[in-house]
Design goal:
53% of the residues lie in helices and 9% in strands. The chain has five helices and two strands; from the N terminus they run E-H-H-H-E-H-H. It has a two-stranded antiparallel ribbon with strand order 1-2. Helix 2 (18-38) packs across helix 3.
Length: 106
């Protein structure tokens, strides 16, 4: 079962493969959510800020890798379990790097 859909301009795909993007999102979402909760944010706010922050970090990573093409990204959660009652966002993201497969040529 897929957990996320990543919609992105070719500036992202010019410097990262599908698998790299999946692994990046997987790692970033778990880390960002943990950091936001540890900073004292309530779970609902932490969740609402996690995916946009992961998208921002993905763009910065692509800039570091030398992309100079158009870049925008939208990360959509495909699970209804991603809510303030979730005990751990890491449980929800486990294996996303293996499950996230997008077609290179659209």
């Amino acid at each position: 079962e897929d957990l996320y859909l990543v919609l992105a301009c070719d500036g992202i795909w010019d410097v990262m493969t599908n698998e790299e993007v999946g692994a990046f999102v997987h790692s970033a979402v778990g880390r960002i959510y943990s950091e936001k909760k540890q900073s004292g944010l309530d779970p609902a706010t932490a969740i609402s800020e996690t995916l946009p922050t992961a998208g921002d970090e993905l763009i910065y990573e692509c800039l570091k890798r030398g992309s100079r093409d158009n870049m925008s990204v939208l990360i959509v959660s495909l699970t209804t379990e991603l809510d303030a009652n979730s005990s751990s966002i890491a449980d929800l993201t486990e294996g996303v790097g293996r499950r996230l497969k997008l077609d290179d040529e659209v």
